[in-house]
Design brief:
alpha+beta, Porin, nine-stranded antiparallel sheet, 4 helices, elongated, Outer membrane protein beta-barrel domain-containing protein, signal
Length: about 240
């Protein structure tokens, strides 16, 4: 037997106990963190209800948003890309997100009656946040719940369409953009604990270190810092999926 063959056979024998750890009925040992791929950022996808506080604008008479769109919220979808700049007792970084929401309703005549045409409000919230999440307990003690917080700036372009846009009868439009700030608190549940072997494969195959389901509450003031304009402030819950990579 050659030396190379002997070394290969010895390596095979030494690997057999590790295989046995994944067999049914055998308790799996925690993975050595050094075996994970490097972690540098995260991506989030989330959905939630968004109801702008247009009717709370100072000096506004009546309730134009409620009268037109009712009390129901828009469905807001957001995607966020995060970059970590600190990993130690928790993780800190910067995140950039963009979202989209729209709401349609019959337009209103001056008399208050519904018109035959539709009107729509559309918004694209863009957020730049600093964040911190306390994932130290999840990594060191196996506690799968990760609390986190965010704070940052919001820039929200918006536009309103009134009526159908046709070449012969163009629709009427109004548009603008509002600046503001937001603060967010949330809790994430680390999915790795439900299926550790799948989580390891997800990391080795795609470079995704950890995956989470999360819920977060955002307090947002988007009214040009009190300078007037359309008030797109909101108080909202969002739910989604986060992937560390």
């Amino acid at each position: 037997m050659s030396r190379a063959t002997a070394l290969g056979f010895a390596a095979l024998l030494s690997a057999l106990p590790a295989w046995g750890q994944d067999t049914p009925g055998v308790v799996m040992q925690p993975e050595d963190l050094s075996l994970q791929s490097p972690r540098s950022g995260a991506v989030q996808f989330k959905l939630g209800g968004y109801k702008p506080l247009v009717d709370d604008e100072e000096g506004l008479t009546g309730s134009p948003y409620k009268d037109t769109f009712g009390d129901e919220s828009m469905l807001l979808f957001e995607a966020e890309l995060q970059r970590f700049f600190y990993q130690g007792v928790g993780t800190a970084g910067v995140g950039l997100s963009a979202g989209y929401a729209e709401k349609y309703a019959p337009a209103r005549l001056a008399s208050g009656a519904e018109a035959a045409e539709q009107t729509a409000l559309k918004v694209v919230p863009i957020n730049l946040n600093l964040f911190y999440k306390f994932d130290y307990a999840a990594f060191e003690w196996g506690i799968p719940f990760v609390p986190y917080g965010k704070m940052g700036l919001i820039y929200t372009p918006w536009w309103v369409n009134k009526g159908e846009e046709r070449e012969s009868v163009p629709g009427r439009k109004a548009s603008g953009a509002e600046w503001g700030w937001n603060a967010t608190g949330g809790i994430a549940f680390m999915l790795d604990v439900l299926e550790p072997r799948f989580a390891r494969d997800f990391d080795s195959d795609l470079g995704v270190n950890h995956s989470y389901l999360f819920a977060e509450y955002t307090y947002a003031d988007v009214n040009n810092f009190g300078g007037g304009g359309l008030d797109l402030s909101s108080r909202r819950w969002m739910f989604g999926l986060a992937l560390d990579y």
